[in-house]
Backbone:
């Protein structure tokens, strides 16, 4: 574990994390840190492996390699990759939300928040036996838990609907409720998977406010596609593409990083066209079309639909390794472009496109394969 | 107003014509259909020859009944229903204030249950009340208890269990074997049987933890069959298909006995006339108390974290895990608690019958218990109690169809139609109330006011 004094600044340290599904490398050798009391954003094009990182941190997947260290405020450290799934929220105090909202829709808002305090109440109820006979200690704990629930309902601006079923709420309110529910577990690190997806600008602004408020007590790790949210509230941004980190830094530095611009915000239209003409392959069109998708909503990503660890884990020891063709990674294109510019000083666009197509063309079958995989519903799908 | 009246008159006139026409058509179709079914019947005469019996009168009656029925339905019933619907739509949506009966349903139910045997004794005398207290009262209450036990597993935790009768069997055999071999009292063996069943509930729970939905249902179904087959084939212990007889009766906490030969026989202690009805009435109150215990525990558990975790598990298992709930132990406690109540009911059943055999624990029993839970509305105790009353009381009351012999002639055996009528009734109920009698869910905690959660939001669980 980390004994260096500086490590306590970081609430979460991810080191050399790899996650393979069979031959598919969803995350390859990823290392980053999240500072305590900050909002760390994890961004990247669709299928970059962001949700897979979340699933590794919160124990839904067991990573193939690597170490995930959580440093709690009281100085204790937990190796999250070793904890069973349900103990990560219970002992390491890491809470999460889901990309496709997972509320207990038939239970009221209040009940949703009470379920989140399960472990605390379980102890207070003497593992059911004291509570069954109505011991006063349990009654008091129960009243306290309702107070905590009310606190978070007020923060999420949902207190008026506390006795309505969660399934009855509008979409934006469900998102806020899911965050409130995660907060009721008393987390030190809150992992939010696309909290702003499907929200209108006003709801999105309200969400920013809520997150800034939470930030005072809890560190946040955030996956987000909505750049306005990311740039406004995050203190630190990590950019993934094809399961690898391509940039890491403050929002400003990341925004100006050419690799990020190429990978995340897309390549110039003319360039894309040129590539298409030269390659003439529709699969490559899909490969390149990975810019931020305004129509993207929850449920588009297949990551959470992937089965439990056991479904996928048994394939993980197979030796084969499919890496994405270099032509597909736009960050790599930028690198190649930089190299070619160094070689012959010409207008940047043409040689860059050529060099990338030159690399892409011989590996066309590989590109096809990777494009086909997500559509086949492979876990941790990547495009 | 006039504008709405005049078209109505226009509309009313044609339906009579149309009804007349449709009545004729229906009669014609009935004639075509039934001329060979009813009009002609093949039979054997004394010399074993095949002869045709002609029943033109019966045919005519059936055809006329069909035609008249169709005529009345199209001409009067249909317009009346439409008018009622239109009026209902026109009337402002008034939230009906629940009536006195509905508001105090539980209290009334408890009072009725407590007074039931007394009322029966007063109405029919000790001997006459036997049938009503035993066949109806005790029988229904056993199923109420079983269904409430299964409700914990299926209704709350959302784990579909098709082999619940196995725990019933474990409880019954636990009491039967320990009671006959070691002469232990019912009051010791009742908790023992519950523990035994809970143990087997955990035993079943472990292998099926990873299964969901259909797969879980199949494994639990197999478990129920395994227990039954073990009971049939393990002759040295269970006496196989012949069953165990001479199971000791329950005593009144050892103070009074219900065996006529015992010195502390109840009639001798209290100096009253001998009657078999005392035991039945005692058993009635015993099973009633066990039912109340089940209901009390269920209601309490729902308000405890473990009960909320069961319901959360039914709603979304992945979200449960993300909140730090140990789904393994939560599922196991649901299986164990449900099984425990099955075991209690089983030991009571053995004590009441005085005889157990594997015949009593076939799959049909599991299916009936599950049907009661589904029919009553998963998770709702009141609805399930009503469903048990309808299902078990209904099948019992259908035995009393003797009056139909007057209608259909003396060779009519109404018992044969019992299950048919019963099945039809179930189909109708499921069409009319697809989420059971009580489709809504009562929240376990509230901030301002307790509002029932509509059944359309709750999930049935994935197994």
Residues:
């Amino acid at each position: 574990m980390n004994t260096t004094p500086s490590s306590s600044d970081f609430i979460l340290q991810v080191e050399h994390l790899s996650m393979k599904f069979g031959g598919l490398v969803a995350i390859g050798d990823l290392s980053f840190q999240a500072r305590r009391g900050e909002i760390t954003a994890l961004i990247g094009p669709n299928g970059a492996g962001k949700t897979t990182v979340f699933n590794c941190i919160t124990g839904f997947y067991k990573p193939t390699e690597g170490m995930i260290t959580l440093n709690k405020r009281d100085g204790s450290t937990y190796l999250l990759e070793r904890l069973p799934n349900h103990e990560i929220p219970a002992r390491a105090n890491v809470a999460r939300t889901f990309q496709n909202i997972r509320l207990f829709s038939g239970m009221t808002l209040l009940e949703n928040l009470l379920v989140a305090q399960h472990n605390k109440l379980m102890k207070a109820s003497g593992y059911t036996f004291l509570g069954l006979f109505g011991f006063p200690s349990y009654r008091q704990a129960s009243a306290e838990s309702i107070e905590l629930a009310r606190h978070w309902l007020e923060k999420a601006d949902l207190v008026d609907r506390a006795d309505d079923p969660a399934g009855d709420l509008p979409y934006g309110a469900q998102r806020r409720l899911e965050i409130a529910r995660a907060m009721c577990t008393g987390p030190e690190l809150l992992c939010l998977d696309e909290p702003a997806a499907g929200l209108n600008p006003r709801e999105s602004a309200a969400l920013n406010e809520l997150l800034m408020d939470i930030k005072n007590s809890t560190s946040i790790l955030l996956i987000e596609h909505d750049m306005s949210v990311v740039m406004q509230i995050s203190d630190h941004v990590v950019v993934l593409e094809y399961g690898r980190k391509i940039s890491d830094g403050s929002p400003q530095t990341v925004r100006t990083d050419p690799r990020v611009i190429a990978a995340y915000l897309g390549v110039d239209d003319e360039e894309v066209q040129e590539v298409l003409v030269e390659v003439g392959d529709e699969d490559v069109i899909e490969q390149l079309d990975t810019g931020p998708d305004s129509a993207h909503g929850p449920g588009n990503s297949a990551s959470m639909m992937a089965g439990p660890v056991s479904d996928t884990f048994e394939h993980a020891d197979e030796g084969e390794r499919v890496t994405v063709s270099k032509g597909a990674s736009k960050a790599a294109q930028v690198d190649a472009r930089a190299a070619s510019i160094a070689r012959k000083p010409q207008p940047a666009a043409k040689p860059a496109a050529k060099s990338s197509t030159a690399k892409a063309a011989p590996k066309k079958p590989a590109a096809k394969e990777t494009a086909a995989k997500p559509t086949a519903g492979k876990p941790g799908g990547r495009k | 107003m006039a504008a709405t009246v005049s078209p109505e008159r226009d509309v009313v006139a044609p339906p009579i014509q149309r009804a007349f026409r449709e009545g004729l058509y229906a009669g014609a179709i009935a004639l075509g259909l039934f001329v060979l079914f009813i009009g002609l019947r093949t039979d054997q005469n004394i010399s074993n020859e095949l002869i045709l019996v002609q029943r033109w009168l019966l045919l005519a009656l059936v055809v006329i009944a069909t035609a008249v029925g169709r005529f009345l339905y199209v001409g009067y019933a249909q317009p009346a229903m439409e008018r009622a619907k239109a009026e209902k739509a026109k009337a402002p949506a008034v939230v009906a204030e629940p009536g006195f009966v509905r508001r105090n349903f539980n209290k009334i139910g408890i009072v009725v249950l407590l007074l039931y045997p007394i009322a029966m004794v007063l109405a029919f005398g000790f001997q006459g009340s036997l049938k009503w207290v035993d066949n109806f009262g005790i029988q229904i209450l056993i199923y109420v208890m079983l269904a409430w036990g299964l409700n914990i597993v299926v209704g709350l935790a959302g784990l579909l269990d098709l082999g619940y009768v196995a725990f019933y069997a474990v409880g019954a055999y636990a009491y039967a074997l320990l009671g006959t071999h070691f002469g232990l009292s019912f009051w010791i063996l009742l908790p023992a049987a519950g523990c035994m069943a809970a143990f087997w509930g955990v035993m079943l729970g472990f292998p099926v933890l990873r299964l969901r939905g259909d797969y879980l249902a199949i494994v639990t179904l197999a478990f129920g069959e395994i227990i039954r087959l073990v009971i049939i084939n393990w002759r040295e212990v269970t006496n196989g298909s012949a069953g165990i007889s001479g199971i000791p009766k329950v005593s009144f906490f050892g103070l009074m006995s219900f065996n006529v030969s015992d010195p502390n026989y109840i009639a001798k202690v209290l100096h009253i006339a001998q009657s078999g009805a005392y035991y039945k009435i005692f058993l009635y109150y015993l099973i009633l108390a066990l039912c109340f215990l089940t209901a009390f525990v269920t209601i309490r558990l729902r308000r405890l974290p473990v009960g909320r975790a069961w319901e959360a598990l039914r709603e979304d298992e992945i979200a449960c895990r993300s909140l730090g709930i140990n789904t393994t132990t939560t599922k196991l406690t649901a299986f164990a608690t449900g099984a425990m109540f099955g075991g209690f009911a089983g030991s009571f059943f053995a004590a009441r019958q005085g005889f157990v055999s594997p015949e009593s624990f076939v799959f049909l029993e599991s299916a009936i218990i599950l049907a009661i839970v589904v029919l009553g509305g998963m998770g709702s105790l009141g609805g399930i109690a009503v469903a048990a009353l309808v299902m078990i009381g209904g099948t019992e009351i259908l035995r009393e169809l003797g009056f139909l012999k007057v209608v259909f002639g003396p060779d009519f055996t109404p018992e044969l139609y019992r299950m048919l009528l019963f099945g039809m009734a179930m189909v109708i109920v499921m069409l009319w109330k697809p989420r059971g009698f009580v489709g809504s869910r009562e929240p376990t905690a509230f901030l301002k006011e307790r509002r029932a959660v509509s059944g359309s939001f709750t999930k049935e669980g994935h197994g």
